[in-house]
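Re: [ENG-882] Designed sequences occasionally contain unexpected residues at chain ends

Forwarding the minimal case from QA. Structure tokens:
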């Protein structure tokens, strides 16, 4: 498949924002990794985007700085430096073990214009609820036919 002309996306992963009174669990950290993999896979398989791998040296630089979700535009510089024209990242906010939300942000690396911003609420803190929430968002919003 020819991917010329498709948005070239640098995906910086999901961040867990725990605003609950409960500690973050190992299961939740594994779910973040699961969402990262699922997001990359779904975008790559959609035929609408090309995921650009982030080289290890860039990953180390990112890890040493502030979170992508609050770095005041650093994501655009990182994206451009690896040949991507879009930057993407996400957050999962844990309000409680029952209430969580998944947020995805995709922006044009040159202009900073947000091309896609969406949030879905999920109920339940399980692998299945997280997976279903992201799949629902992608299927019904990002990949939805105009």
């Amino acid at each position: 498949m020819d991917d010329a002309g498709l948005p070239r996306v640098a995906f910086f992963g999901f961040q867990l924002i725990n605003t609950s009174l409960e500690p973050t669990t190992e299961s939740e950290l594994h779910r973040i990794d699961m969402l990262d993999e699922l997001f990359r896979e779904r975008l790559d398989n959609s035929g609408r985007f090309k995921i650009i791998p982030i080289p290890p040296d860039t990953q180390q630089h990112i890890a040493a700085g502030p979170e992508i979700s609050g770095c005041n535009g650093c994501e655009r510089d990182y994206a451009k430096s690896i040949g991507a024209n879009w930057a993407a990242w996400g957050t999962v906010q844990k309000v409680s073990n029952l209430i969580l939300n998944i947020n995805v942000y995709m922006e044009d690396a040159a202009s900073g214009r947000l091309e896609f911003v969406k949030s879905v609420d999920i109920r339940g803190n399980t692998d299945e609820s997280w997976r279903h929430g992201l799949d629902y968002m992608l299927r019904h919003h990002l990949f939805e036919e105009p």
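QA comment: On inspection the terminal residues look reasonable. The chain has four helices and five strands. Proposing we downgrade this to a documentation issue.
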